[in-house]
Write a structure and sequence with these properties.
The complex is a heterodimer of chains A (about 160) and B (about 210).
Chain A (H helix, E strand, L loop, with lengths): L2 H25 L3 H18 L9 H16 L4 H5 L17 H16 L2 H11 L4 H8 L3 H19 L2
Helix pairs in contact in A: 1-2, 1-3, 2-3, 6-8, 7-8
Chain B lengths: L2 H11 L9 H7 L7 H19 L5 H9 L3 H27 L7 H39 L1 H7 L12 H46 L1
The chains are: A mainly alpha (about 160), B mainly alpha (about 210).
């Protein structure tokens, strides 16, 4: 592989790495697994990069490869099963708008999303990232109508987890 | 506005505390080896293909001589040609399916292609176990019906094996060994599929369920 391509890829990934971290955080339960998955996604992105034609944004293309790796290619390690959920999401808080209740609610909601199955989690993640149903259906390989139906069911599941 | 929509608003507007991997660390990761499920499937599948093909090369010479003495050498020769043609076909299908696995496909397609690759190898194994059973039945019944010829060909008299009940004991021993081998193989595959493909199968079914 030529150096220029390598450089361009690393630069793109460095700038867009938050997407990968968010996916790693949703699909793993401890820091070591998070790092493992990040590395696996990086390898898969790099392998696929020569075929990236640039007809979509790098970040759009990343969602697909990163989610595919998290859902399908990544082998969960044993330690991941045995350890408890780590702190989960943490939003940066501006001191003047700090609100303990909202913070608690966000944490609970994030915990509920993590409890969903792999596919529902991907659906909800893309929804949170403000992707259209068209993009969601393209990424997962289902029809747009089914993506909407499935999303409503996932919302229902979340409601049940939060209000048992 | 439901709870998820409120969460979405926060997700969009607030910045999350996320780790930061440096340019140099990402660079180093490019040199690391993948440990994806596809790699494991490839390794296990190639090992299986080699195992079953290799079995044909470790059959002892005496066995072949015995088959010739029993008069079924020629049939076995043609059966082997057929086997290797089937092996070739399976290797071609496996390679073609493996090549179709692209991480840039949509999730459902990716899962389908991985499962198809795996399925090719599974059919290959089923074919081999099936052939093992069929050929054992055919050869053993032939031996049973020609037990005198077998007794002489294997020179059991000089080894002190009594001729009475020889055929029955021989068949029972063959069947027991056959059942044990098949049992072990089934256990092995049950474990391999169970460990490696459980999550993939569950997720694929979940995606398929949506389309029904």
């Amino acid at each position: 592989m030529n150096k220029e391509l390598e450089h361009r890829f690393v630069k793109e990934l460095e700038q867009n790495q938050n997407i990968v971290h968010k996916i790693c955080r949703l699909y793993t339960h401890d820091q070591d697994s998070h790092n493992d998955l990040f590395q696996e996604i990086t390898i898969q992105l790099w392998r696929a990069f020569p075929k990236f034609r640039g007809d979509s944004k790098f970040s759009t293309w990343m969602y697909r490869v990163a989610l595919n790796t998290a859902i399908t290619l990544y082998r969960k390690s044993k330690r991941q099963i045995s350890t408890q959920d780590f702190e989960g999401v943490s939003f940066k808080i501006k001191s003047e708008e700090y609100d303990d209740t909202t913070e608690q609610q966000l944490k609970l909601m994030y915990g509920a999303v993590k409890k969903l199955n792999d596919i529902d989690k991907a659906l909800v993640f893309l929804y949170l990232e403000d992707k259209s149903y068209r993009e969601i259906s393209d990424t997962l390989g289902i029809t747009e109508v089914n993506a909407r139906v499935k999303m409503n069911r996932a919302k229902e599941k979340l409601r049940k987890i939060l209000n048992p | 506005m439901d709870q998820l929509d409120k969460f979405k608003k926060e997700w969009q507007t607030r910045e999350q505390e996320l780790p930061k991997v440096s340019f140099n660390d990402i660079y180093k990761m490019l040199l690391k080896k993948s440990s994806s499920i596809v790699k494991w499937i490839f390794i296990i599948s190639v090992a299986e293909l080699l195992f079953w093909i290799g079995l044909y090369f470790i059959i002892p010479e005496e066995n072949m001589i015995l088959m010739h003495e029993m008069g079924i050498g020629e049939i076995l020769y043609y059966a082997n040609i057929f086997h290797f043609a089937v092996f070739g076909l399976f290797i071609f299908l496996f390679y073609k399916n493996y090549q179709s696995i692209q991480v840039t496909d949509n999730t459902k397609m990716l899962m389908k292609n991985i499962l198809n690759t795996r399925k090719t190898v599974r059919y290959f194994v089923i074919y081999n176990i099936g052939m093992f059973i069929v050929s054992s039945i055919v050869v053993d019944s032939f031996f049973y019906n020609n037990s005198n010829k077998l007794y002489n060909a294997m020179d059991f008299a000089s080894k002190g094996v009594p001729k009475e009940n020889f055929a029955n004991v021989f068949i029972i021993a063959q069947v027991l060994v056959g059942v044990a081998v098949i049992g072990l193989l089934i256990l092995f595959y049950w474990l391999v599929y169970g460990i490696l493909l459980k999550r993939l199968n569950t997720n694929y079914k979940e995606l398929q369920k949506m389309e029904n």
